[in-house]
Amino acid sequence: MSFLSATLSRVKPSPTVAVTTLAQELKAQGRDIIGLGAGEPDFDTPDNIKDAAIAAIRAGRTKYTAPDGMPELKAAICAKFVRENGLSYMPAQVSVATGGKQILFNALMATLNPGDEVIIPAPYWVSYPDMVLLGGGTPVPVECGIGAGFKMTPEQLEAAITPKTKWLIFNSPSNPTGAGYSRDELKGLTDVLLRHPHVWVMTDDMYEHLVFDDFKFCTPAQVEPALYDRTLTCNGVSKAYAMTGWRIGYAAGPERLIAAMRKIQSQSTTNPSSISQWAAVEALNGTQDFLPRFRAMFQRRRDLVVKMLNEAPGITCPTPDGAFYVYPSIAGCIGKTSPEGTLLDTDQAFATALLEETGVAVVFGAAFGLSPNFRVSYATSEDVLTEACNRIRRFCENLT
Is residue 361 a contact partner of residue 36, using CB atoms and an 8 Å limit? Predict the structure, then answer.
């Protein structure tokens, strides 16, 4: 009898974490490494948020809270949903967890049974399929290629739904592509969902505030109120507020689902950090003046990276609507040989050779369910991005 759970054989470690860890290890060895794998803003958490956490510590607010969030934070989340999304929730419909990932995990663990299917547009965030597998369900990827702007069509959604479908996981703007769905595009998907009342919607709105040009963010329950009672609207403070390490994610949805998620969390991590929760209260209730500045900086970086990568032979890099990623195609590089003699037969081989021969760490596309591509996180300085893109261009120029 095996000591380890058989469930572990169905899942794999996070490739994005693996790339970031390897880059850190190589840098510690003295290598000149540029890590573009981590989905983490390089900005510091705004001072008003840090001050709120310090004040909480000094006030002794360091005890257990309710398992899925203290009343003050739930009230701030309810106010945020009304103010920014036109969605009305009561505190009993809100769950707070140790990061957005735990919110998604709790929901899947609380609802999935063997045989349940979860539709996941691909490219997808690397954790979605494995969390479904951990919950005992079956991920159903729907390939959304570069020609479709990395977005799922209503026809694709209709074709993917079966009597076993329980959830659609929906992420806009997307990690890894930055692609965002317009209101009309989203309405096309919600119209399909209205015809299939057994399918629930789990949104990942983590990049809501990181959108560029004239893109207007919207979320499914906002576009189609008839889906309100079967939508879990998920978000968090990690990305827009530069609070990745604080580990606060949240969601709102039907009270019976939130209660089931609370039961899961009460037997796992109990409550999120009380100090981080007070910081999140300030993030949501306090000034939002820094958000336009963050967006403008990310947009400049996006434009720089898109321009430079499109100058590299064999690479096609679409312009994303939001987040802080690009997901270029390397179809023109596949089958060629690297300057040091590595056959680039897959995007994983490309990413490995790129790291070994140039010191630039990216995440290969197969990890996100669509090849041949790679993901670049441009959440770092323009100087670093310029150097990284120059290295990538030179690498591609010397392929044979």
Answer: yes
